[in-house]
Amino acid sequence: MSFDTLEHLPEAVAEGLAGGTLAPYLGPAMLGLVENPPVPAEPLALAALLTARNSVPGKIRNRLTQAAQFIENFKHRKTLVAGMDAAFTAQPLPSALHRWLAGLRSPLIVAGWYDDTMRTALVDAAASFAEVQGLSQSEHFGTWCGWYGADGTALADEPVDVRTVFYKPWGGHAPASNYLVSDSDYVEVLTEIDIQTPIPALVQQRRASLGFVFLGCRFNDQLPRSFARQIMKRSAGPHYAVLPDEPTRMEARFLEEQGITRIALPLADVAAQLTGRRPAFIEP
Fold first, then answer.
1. CA nearest 174: which of 119, 93, 126?
2. Does the global pTM surpass 0.85?
3. Which end of the chain, N or C, is less surrounded by CB atoms within 10 Å?
4. Which pLDDT score, from 0 to 100, does residue 1 have?
């Protein structure tokens, strides 16, 4: 498999992010930049928290979407949402990179995890933004996404003139406890995502002139690959992924098919270069 790998951070990445031609696409590992993150930073940790509150069969205890489905089926959807709220109620203090990104006024930021960290950074920066979240069909049948203002107020229409669209395709804790987390949540979306139905029209419009920079993302599972592939569809490129670990076979295939350049540096190093300083809690 052939894809470009760089051992340095290209100037084009910093310039593209700062200039609004590259959109940040954030994954759970962004929480690795947060000092003592008070929320789960990967699916296994989230599964452990959910199953500590609700017993599930041992064979699915470490499988997040299956464990969530069991809780939804046998304990009710409200129990699952309550478990997710408990897992993500704490507010992580945004890292220097979160704050740097919030200050860019990017046309589009994508975040594929449930924490409130990037939203907090945007609010603290007094950014002009609106948030759009994926919605579970079990709670919002026929409606694929919900829009919210910076103050958390639900919006009736797409805010086409807003400076930054903050897109959380899996939902998130704030402001309305919207979560795509169970098998059925994802089946509903993935059934339609090839024809782009669940992806907001404004996101589709803005990505047409953008490339993506994946920060804190892994592609060693079908779900993040499927969402990234469809969110990138018909975007302008180029695309980069900060991926210090050697890619798995499926990750390598994904990078190749999507034309993503791998930046083989630790996320903390990239964050330090982008922000111009190394956060004090990251060991040199």
1. 119
2. yes
3. C
4. 62
